[in-house]
């Protein structure tokens, strides 16, 4: 475990305890093997002066919704320390009542809700307390002789406690176990199947101890396993695999009553695990740590060839699991798996949005690594299903379920946008992402990024006049997101103005190829996935030149007219499959790559206008922007016009010839 402490960074912080707490919390959060997606928590004890001028002892503890990797000072709500200590002396306290009491103990009513471990942090008699869900420590505890191994590793320097639910009863357990204990001889506390606590009156010392203890666990694993413990293999997926994914995604969405995302992971580690003969048994025993059930459920789905039938098998097993452990007040969660093993092919991740998909992916990869290490240490033996159920159906999580949430209109949906690098295409990408969609963005621009820092955007360089290039792009996009629900067919160009008498074959053919034929190829490639999509919609970006062509624009106008006619036929053909096809006719959208300053000046001069007059030469006397077209795209792709297909809508500020 790398020690990330830097003396110069710490020196710049000085004696500010809260700033130091933020610093070392971020150091912990940067290590995925310590905490994942909000896991773990930290605190520091200090004091605040009240409005009455009185000094009060306070616990600054990680707040709900914050991640240690990015936490700031605002993420540590101040809680009355003495109030927490009194709560710790109660005989019993339900978790929902505990949360209410934690909020009552806040000195700032607008601060986030303190961690459920706040009482435990208060009980530890040191200024700084660090808690991680260290993979290595939890992996060892998930083996038949895990507790014995940990005692062998740490001796008497670490208190090792059996698993118990987080929250008030965990605080009680630690209080009882340390009642007559000399804290000064302890370096840490291991909670089996849960994680590790370290503490000190000095931030660096507590952090250093965390790194030291986790390193010892990692060294134990390394000395008792070898490279062959983690199986690696390869599988080359095919177009038929992607269509199966699309069908599975559709069936999975029915289990959550809405669109979902699905990813196929065919990395060497994912395929290697899927190739293990006992992979189906290992993946259904349980997760690395029980809090992962909240994100990834208590066990995986197992997929073979008929993925939709295998999904039904998971649903049946999950309902049996719920019925076995439920009590009267429990409300069954959705029955969609969050990850699955596709035997010999890789791992599948499922979630309602991209953020959760990334969480499931990260948790799953850490889990399969831990499973294989656990097997090498004597066998993977996570907590019994009853304990996993208790966390998955924790009353605090059930309360969140009952409160409900409103999804963004396109959350869980997958859109394809062509000509996405600039102008209308770029505006459409931005608008769709803002509404919750993930986007497969295609463009021929050489500077167009193969990947993006935004995980919801798959930016891929593609020549949409090339059928093979389109197929390759769509296969990779579907592997990444699971299907296609929306196609915004936008790629195009405005060829040089030429009269028919002087028309060059190359100019004509190039326009027909890009402005008409490429749209057919892209639509043809998307249709197998669109037919399996959620409320599938295609929006074709044509042109004002269709209803109102101009002289010198025969190549462009004919191509766009042909494109419009193709879209109308598609609307007739695909209605029975629920695929809507609608057409937009923009005009005079000047914030695009087509309209350079030189071209604008030339066209304005041709009509005897200034550039500004030329831009607003329409009925409404207003400039039309790319984002105006994008708004119309969102309207046609969404549910507001769910009963409309084959429509043509001008976006031109009003054009006399069109009207």
UniProtKB/TrEMBL annotation:
One of its GO terms (molecular function) is oxidoreductase activity. Pfam families: adh_short, Aldolase_II. Keywords: Oxidoreductase. PROSITE patterns: ADH_SHORT. The keyword Secreted does not apply. GO terms for biological process: monosaccharide metabolic process. InterPro entries: Aldolase_II/adducin_N, Aldolase_II/adducin_N_sf, NAD(P)-bd_dom_sf, Sc_DH/Rdtase_CS, SDR_fam. Gene3D superfamilies: Class II aldolase/adducin N-terminal domain, NAD(P)-binding Rossmann-like Domain. Belongs to the short-chain dehydrogenases/reductases (SDR) family. NCBIfam families: PRK08324.2-4. This is Bifunctional aldolase/short-chain dehydrogenase. It comes from OM182 bacterium MED-G28. The lineage of its organism: Bacteria, Pseudomonadati, Pseudomonadota, Gammaproteobacteria, OMG group.
């Amino acid at each position: 475990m790398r020690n990330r402490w830097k003396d110069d960074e710490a020196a710049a912080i000085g004696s500010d305890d809260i700033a130091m707490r933020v610093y070392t919390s971020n150091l912990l959060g940067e290590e995925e093997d310590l905490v994942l997606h909000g896991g773990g928590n930290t605190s520091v004890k200090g004091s605040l002066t009240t409005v009455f001028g009185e000094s009060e002892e306070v616990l600054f503890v990680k707040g709900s919704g914050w991640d240690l990797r990015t936490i700031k000072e605002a993420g540590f709500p101040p809680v009355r320390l003495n109030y927490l200590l009194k709560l710790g002396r109660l005989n019993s306290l339900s978790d929902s009542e505990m949360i209410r009491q934690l909020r009552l103990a806040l000195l700032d009513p607008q601060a986030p809700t303190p961690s459920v471990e706040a009482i435990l942090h208060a009980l530890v008699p040191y200024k700084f307390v660090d808690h991680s869900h260290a993979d290595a420590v939890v992996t060892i505890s998930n083996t038949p002789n895990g507790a014995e191994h940990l005692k062998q590793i740490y001796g008497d320097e670490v208190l090792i406690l059996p698993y118990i639910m987080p929250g008030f009863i965990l605080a009680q357990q630690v209080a009882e176990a340390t009642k007559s204990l000399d804290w000064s001889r302890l370096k840490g506390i291991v909670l089996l199947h849960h994680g590790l606590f370290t503490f000190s009156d000095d931030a660096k010392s507590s952090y250093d101890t965390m790194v030291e203890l986790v390193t010892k666990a990692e060294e134990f694993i390394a000395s008792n396993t070898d490279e062959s413990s983690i199986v690696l293999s390869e599988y080359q997926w095919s177009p038929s695999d992607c269509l199966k994914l699309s069908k599975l995604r559709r069936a999975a969405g029915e289990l959550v009553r809405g669109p979902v995302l699905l990813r196929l992971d065919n990395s060497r580690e994912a395929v290697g695990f899927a190739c293990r003969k006992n992979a189906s048994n290992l993946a259904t025993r349980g997760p690395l740590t029980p809090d992962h059930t909240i994100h990834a459920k208590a066990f995986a789905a197992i997929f073979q060839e008929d993925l939709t039938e295998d999904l039904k098998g998971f649903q049946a097993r999950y309902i049996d699991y719920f019925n076995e452990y439920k009590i009267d007040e429990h409300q069954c969660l959705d029955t969609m798996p969050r990850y699955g093993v596709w035997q010999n092919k890789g791992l599948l991740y499922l979630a309602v949005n991209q953020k959760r998909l990334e969480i499931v992916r990260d948790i799953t990869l850490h889990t399969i690594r831990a499973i294989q290490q656990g097997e090498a240490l004597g066998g993977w033996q996570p907590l019994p299903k009853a304990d996993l159920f208790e966390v998955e159906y924790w009353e605090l999580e059930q309360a969140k379920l009952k409160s409900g949430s409103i999804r963004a209109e396109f959350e869980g949906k997958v859109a394809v946008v062509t000509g996405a690098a600039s102008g209308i295409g770029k505006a459409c990408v931005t608008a769709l992402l803002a509404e919750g969609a993930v986007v497969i963005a295609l463009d021929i621009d050489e500077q167009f990024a193969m990947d993006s820092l935004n995980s919801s955007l798959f930016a891929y360089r593609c020549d949409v006049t090339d059928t093979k290039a389109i197929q390759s792009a769509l296969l990779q996009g579907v592997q990444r997101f699971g299907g296609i629900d929306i196609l915004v067919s936008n790629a195009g160009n405005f060829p040089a103005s030429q009269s028919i008498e002087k028309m060059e074959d190359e100019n004509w053919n190039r326009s027909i190829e890009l402005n008409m034929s490429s749209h057919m190829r892209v639509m043809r490639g998307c249709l197998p996935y669109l037919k399996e999509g959620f409320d599938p919609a295609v929006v074709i970006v044509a042109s004002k030149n269709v209803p109102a062509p101009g002289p010198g624009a025969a190549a462009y106008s004919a191509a766009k007219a042909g494109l419009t006619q193709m879209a109308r036929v598609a609307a007739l053909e695909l209605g029975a499959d629920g695929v809507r096809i609608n057409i937009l006719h923009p005009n005079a959208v000047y914030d695009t790559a087509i309209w350079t300053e030189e071209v604008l000046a030339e066209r304005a001069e041709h009509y005897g206008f200034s550039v500004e007059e030329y831009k607003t030469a329409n009925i409404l006397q207003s400039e039309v922007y790319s984002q105006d077209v994008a708004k119309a795209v969102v309207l046609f792709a969404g549910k507001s016009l769910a009963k409309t297909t084959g429509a043509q809508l001008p976006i031109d500020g009003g054009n006399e010839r069109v009207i």
